[in-house]
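re the bet — no i am not wrong, look at it urself. input seq straight from the record:
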Amino acid sequence: MRSTRLLALASVSALGLTACSGGGNSVDTGGGGGDNVLVAAVSAQPDQFDPHVTNAYASFQVLENVYDTLVVPNGEDLTMEPSLATEWEVSDDDLEWRFTLRDGVTFHDGSEFDSADVVYSYNRIIDDELSNAYRFQTVESVEADGPQTVVIRVTQPTPNLPALIGSFKGMAIIPEGAAEDLDLTTEAVGTGPFRLESSDASATELTKNDDYWGDEPSIDGVEFRYITEPAAALTALQNGEVQWTDNIPPQQVDSLEGDDSVELATTPSVDYWYMSMNFAKPPFENPQVRKAIATAIDREAVTQAARFDAAQPNQTAIPEDSFFHSDYAPYEADVDAAKQLIADSGVPTPIRMGLMVTDEYPETVTAAQVIASQLEPIGVEVEVQTTDFATWLDRQGKGDFDAFMLGWLGNVDPFDFYHAQHITGGDSNYQKYSNPQVDQLLTDAATETDQDARKDLYDQAARLIVDDVSYLYLYNPDVVQAWAPGLSGYEIRADKAINFEGVELP
């Protein structure tokens, strides 16, 4: 977070990694589980289970195993491959997409999956203007052409449509009428390899879906335990109380590489972490103030404090190993230059800024403390405001912040990195940024079919976003996960999607 998918998403996280990060409390790690149940330690509790509404990465860690999308990113290069759709084609004019659906799929309630469920799911997102409605901005209609075919018509060429509908489980297919018949905040009826069994303040439990359309899971279920402190999660793994975790103390990553008590895996992510200031709150609407803060921050130091060597500083969103990466980096930490920008702004010092973070993602607290120390010499007094994630999300949604930090998680296409976060009125534009040039560039990029031309449009937009400090980008983290020796069938992924259907316990 997906801040939002959020992480937000981050974040990222942002989200931005699309997810932010999630909510929950530290708990006793004892008890629970079973002989053939995978126990996974995660840092935060899901905020809810409606895939079309939540933006929290903690929710998507669970929902990834419960729901399916029409297409899905593969684990190697995140290109789209079949899932509930077996194949798809686009018309010669690029305005009509036809998806052929998989036969013989049933939902967890026993109902049969067909085109009506896809039409219902997508129209629900569009008509109710839910979290991911922006992904359908070029969609004119979603219709069934018989029970096994869905036709999506767009008003303009939309080359990334498969990524828009398949990059994460916020685009999941739910049964027709489910939102009216069920409380989707606490219930889930998907087609995925596991069913949602129960969830409370200490854990969420999934059980194997015996009627899964894919390969039958080898394990009987998954128990997600919320262990906020990374050190506690690692200890639980080393003691055999859990078998998997992504909550690893970053300062211990190097030493764990030679530790026989865990299997450690890392890979570059498609996430980014950032801070953003509220354009609707003085003095942060002043561009000189924002640029001063961007100039005062030493991203290398922030990255090292938050993630040690498990991240790469970046002044734009997209990681350097991506075709769409921009190497634009106009800011160099310079206290004197930052002081001059403050003076040029005409805003008297001290400037007081509340920086909202969540202790359910401890790296945000650490990073915020470093940022506070870096901004003090230029006359910006930072109050680090540490909240639980539910409060963080509520305040972000209400615009009740001076600044916040989080990440956007699981991004796949450049659209995921920039569009909803920075276009005027975007669903994730909580900072209230508006630049007509950026709006036009992002709109054009979303429908550009030539890859090189599309990259150029996103590069131009990124430069303006960075210059305006809509987001103050900090770093791209690595994905770091660990599991019990002998556990097999799990694949670490750059998009942080956690898929447990292939896991076999030792």
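see?? The longest strand covers residues 472-483. told u. also The domain at 71-181 is CATH 3.90.76.10 (Dipeptide-binding Protein; domain 1). so pay up
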